[in-house]
Amino acid sequence: MEYITTPWREKYIKKASKMKECIFCRALKQKTDRESYILYRGIQNFIVLNKYPYTPGHLMIAPFKHIGSLEMSEKESTEELIDLLKLSMEILRKKYNPNGFNIGMNIGQSAGAGIADHYHLHVIPRWVGDSNFMPLIGKTKITIEDIETTYDKLFPLFQKKGVGR
Q1: Is the pLDDT of residue 136 over 50?
Q2: Which residues, 6+ apart, have CB-to-CB distance to 38 below 8 Å?
Q3: What is the pLDDT of residue 143?
Q4: How confident is the model over 82-93, as pLDDT tens digits?
Q5: Cα–Cα distance between 98 and 80 in angstroms, integer?
Q6: Which superfamily does 9-161 belong to?
Q7: Largest CB tally within 10 Å, which of 2, 63, 107, 163?
Q8: Burial 89-113 (b: 16+ CB within 10 A, else e)
Q9: Phi, psi of 116 (to 5 degrees)
Q10: Measured between alpha carbons, how far is 160 from 163 in angstroms, rounded to an integer?
């Protein structure tokens, strides 16, 4: 069996577990969506870029309501979450042309959730051969663009194609 590690996330996970305020709730309180990298606000959920992306375009969909698990959400919220997932995939395919996606949730700290009290869905575009040795050997994550560039590419597309407003 081959094990793949992500050592660059250790610093983030340790920091996140000590934070007193939820990063998603804090993002919603920022003066501008650009400050917090919010790409889109729906009726019950929002789409935000991951500040520590695995790949460019790595985003998350989270409810406005501070809630720890999907099954505690109302049907309208989970239905909108899936609509925003579909929208996200459509826009990411158009802008980045990925070969596939990793989509998932880590519910609870033991499942790997860095923010365990506010569930969120990760949407990660993937390309054949997009992994490299730098995180393992150099403890350095390499991406092809910075988060501001990703935001500038995606924000207008979400505003044009948005649902729920």
Answers
A1: no
A2: 27, 28, 30, 46, 47, 48
A3: 65
A4: 999 999 999 999
A5: 23
A6: HIT-like (3.30.428.10)
A7: 63
A8: eebbeeebebeebeeebebeeeeeb
A9: -80, -25
A10: 9
Which residue's structure tokens are 């519910």?
Answer: 107
Do residues 16 and 23 lie in contact, with contact meaning Cβ atoms separated by under 8 Å? yes
Biggest CA-to-CA distance, the chain: 47
Q: Secondary structure of the chain in the HEC alphabet?
A: CCCCCCCCHHHHHHHHHHCCCCHHHHHHHCCCHHHHCEEEECCCEEEEECCCCCCCCCEEEEECCCCCCHHHCCHHHHHHHHHHHHHHHHHHHHHHCCCEEEEECCCCHHHCCCCCCCCCEEEEEECCCCCCCHHHHCCCCCCCCCHHHHHHHHHHHHHHHCCCC
- Could you give the CA distance from residue 123 to residue 105 in angstroms, rounded to a whole number? 9
pTM of the entire structure? 0.79
